[in-house]
Amino acid sequence: MKADFSAEALAPDYIKTFSPYIPSNPDPVLMQRFGVDRLHRLNNNENPFGPPESARRVLEDFNMGRTSIYPSGDSYFLKYALAEKYHKSPEQFLVGNGSNEAITCVIKAFCEQGDNIVTADRTYATYEWVAEFSGLEARLVPLNERYEFDPERMLAALDERTKIIFLCNPNNPTGTWWNEDKLRSFIESAGRRIIVVDEAYCEFVRQPGFPDAMKLMEQYENVISFRTFSKMYGLAGLRVGYLCGSAECIDVVRRAYVVYSVNSLGQLAAQAAVAEPGDHVEKTLRMVSEARSFLTSEFARLGLESQTGEGIFCMVRVPCPDTTMYRRLIKRGVMVRTMTGFRFPNWIRVTYSTMDVMREFAEALEQCLKP
Amino acid sequence: MGGIFVTDNRLEIKFPLSERYIGALLPLVRSYAEDGRLSAVQAGKYELAAEEFLTSLASDVPGSPVLAKFFERGRHLSMSFSLVSKGLDLSGLNMVNIHSARRSGEIDTETRLLLVSRSVDEFSAALDERGVCSFNCSVEKDYAEQEPLRSPIRAVKPYRVSESADVQRVSLLLAAGLYENMRGKTYCRRPDSFFADQKAGIISMLCLVDANDSPVAVIPWKERKGTVIFEGPFVLCENDRDEAAAAAIEQLVTRFGKEDVVCALTERKDFANQGGYFERVNGVSFRVMGEDDGGTVWAVSEMAPLLKKQYEAMELLRNVLVVKGDIKQERTLLSLSLQADLERASLRPEIIGRDFKEVLAAHVEELKKRKYETIALFLPMRGIEPAIAAGLASEQGFGVWYIIPGVAGGDILVLRYEG
Questions:
Q1: Which residues fall within 8 angstroms of residue A333, CB to CB, at 6 or more apart?
Q2: Is B263 helix (H, G, I), strand (E, B) or coil?
Q3: Which of A114, A233, B90, B404 could form a disulfide with B333 if both were Cys (CB 3.0 to 4.6 A apart)?
Q4: How far is B5 from chain A (nearest CA, A)?
Q5: How far is A338 from chain B (nearest CA, A)?
Q6: Distance between CA atoms of B419 and A332, rounded to whole angstroms?
Q7: At what angle do helices A53-60 and A264-275 cross, to 10 degrees?
Q8: Quick one: B24 and B105 in the same domain?
Q9: What gap in Å lies between CA B186 and CA B112, rounded to an integer?
Q10: Beta strands A194-198 and A162-168: pairing type?
Q11: Which of A158-167, A224-233, A275-284, B335-344 has the lowest mean pLDDT?
Q12: A with B: how many residue pairs have Cβ under 8 Å apart?
């Protein structure tokens, strides 16, 4: 029996050809291997301030006795807190184990074999991955020359089997964004498909004309917004993301959702962050603004091309393979994200952080550029 | 015990190894080869290879069941023979057999396999984890030769990637016309042979065209177990040549950004690295595609300093674990891939035995006689036997050429015969 068994043979072709994502090694392993005594994580767009004070208190006061009790299966209180904040019905929300689970639910709920999704070629990769390992076609439309989603080419990529369009606004990793007029015009031209607006980084944007999908969905029932507590709210380690759409859309998505996936700590901390953000958002935005202007001038001083849009990150093009630069920087205690996997070879993405860390990164980068 | 399976492009037969069955099979093999696939001369080579291979196996393990497959694979008509290796002295199936005691009848096994390897265009052996040993060889089909093109175009931006077959054909012919070192390549002179291999997933190319759809650069590439090996870029325009080369390389790297590719490299010394997408060590330009966080490789003490130096040059973090030990197997089996243009012979051990040094030396001797430009030996860097083999190869005149990082969960050491 053992000799005849082949797990590979049982897998569908689209799984056989799919390569698993290999996450980074844990920090202690990396520090030990690279011989560094500290590691600045500038690779995952995490908020260096951590969560708001209200969420910290909830985590510190967590009743350990509750670890033996299942969490609320559908994040009941968190949904109510979100509904209150955004003036919507709790039934319009679905909370997931990070927005990756939300992406999976939407694709599973609306697509069947032969369908396709449309998104950009250089954006958050999970839309493409989930579609592909679900046996669906991911139609990837090149960004335009300004590294923005290209509405005309995306519309041209649609056909009768296109069920979902994924827009990342602002886009990870380029930080480019569509204004409300452009988004409205696109939604009106895209027909009756699901339009997901991934707003994972929307809390970092203070630009006039930046759209709010939460409001647009009141007019366009096919619009779904994805948001997360992993970025602005510093709860990446607890994995809480959510989506919001019309009650009808969310009712369909919920059928592809396995309940109880969000743990109690995550639900409580997210609920506190929604209810009482305090000055967390403003403080983070100040940090981002300061880091952005510092790095922009440092990149210019070093003669490097950069892409500094909206979000908690920027990109810079280095004169060697990004994967080599990654290894050089990590030996100096700084971890960045290589962009080859995002189809930006020789670019690295850097998460904004406090000024002491930004100065350390700039210094390390300058050293790594020396022959 | 027996069985036959025939389709339009495939012939499979399972039978016990004996002269009677081999004799009955050969006319069928000949018919298969001649059935619109090979010229009479090539079909004769194909039949001879089958005969010699099967006779050789029958003398080693008479009566053992063998699965013989005859099939088209890209530009080749191939054959493979698979059998369970238990009871079979696999060393007799090396291209060069050093164990002369294995003579049988009028013609010894060594001579037979040399004959086979000379009459076919590709020859290799492989052993899988279930102990099934497969021997493969291929004969190239006939393709019409085309006249190279010698007039580069004046390129107009912007550039883009083209998948058009016409563009690919013109690109190959231009590469043959404009680059002396490409003229000898079968696939440049006979583009249809390239397309046959491309259809079979053996080779591919990236073609960059200008605003008028005229080819400006081409990069032929092959992928093997997560490693992309490419040639070029061959610039086909007369203006903005560096820019065209950089754009083609960027497109190539971008193409593999989200694929299951661990490393991309070129062995070409004339690679100019426009755009800075690659690192160069020992004349080989390479690029690790992902975030390499280090690992452990195995080496004998004599090799460890050389490997450490190589890793330092590649800026790769590796713990070089110095190991001692013995080789457990008695006999070695080397897989050999030969390039028809004599540019490269690649050796890969399927079994490392205590006779490794002698077997390797015998192969080198034979390959030198045939004037192969490069003799490369590929060794995994995990396990005691490969580590010892690397040391033994070093004693035989092999030097560290390059390392392919992260392939199949470990690194591959590539040694080159330096004499």
A1: A36, A37, A38, A39, A40, A360, A364
A2: strand
A3: B90
A4: 22
A5: 7
A6: 41
A7: 150
A8: yes
A9: 27
A10: parallel
A11: B335-344
A12: 68
* DSSP secondary structure of B339-355: -TTSSEEEEEEEE-BTT
pLDDT beneath 70, residues of chain B: 1-2, 8, 87-90, 92-93, 97-119, 340-342, 407-409
Q: What is the pLDDT of residue B419?
A: 84
Same domain assignment for residues B106 and B174:
no
Token representation of residue B237: 């325009």
CB atoms within 10 A of CB A107: 26
A151 phi and psi, to 5 degrees? -60, -40
**Mean pLDDT score of chain A, rounded to an integer?**
96
CATH value at residue B375: 3.40.630
Domains of chain A: 7-50+280-369 (3.90.1150.10), 53-275 (3.40.640.10)
Does B333 lie in the same domain as B248?
Answer: no
Report pTM: 0.90
Residues of B in contact with A3 (CB under 8 A): 130
Q: Which two tokens stand for residue B397?
A: 């005149």
Joined tokens for residue B75: 């530009």
| Shared-domain flag, residues B358 and B417 | yes
Q: What distance in Å separates the CA atoms of residue A43 and residue B13, rounded to the nearest whole number?
A: 55
Q: Nearest-CA residue of chain B relative to A347?
A: B277
The interface pTM score, or ipTM, of the predicted complex is: 0.87
Instruction: Name the residue range of residue B337's domain.
Output: 291-419
Which of A17, A39, A317, A323 to mutate against chain B (most B CBs within 10 Å)?
A323
Q: What is the mean pLDDT of residues A281-304?
A: 98
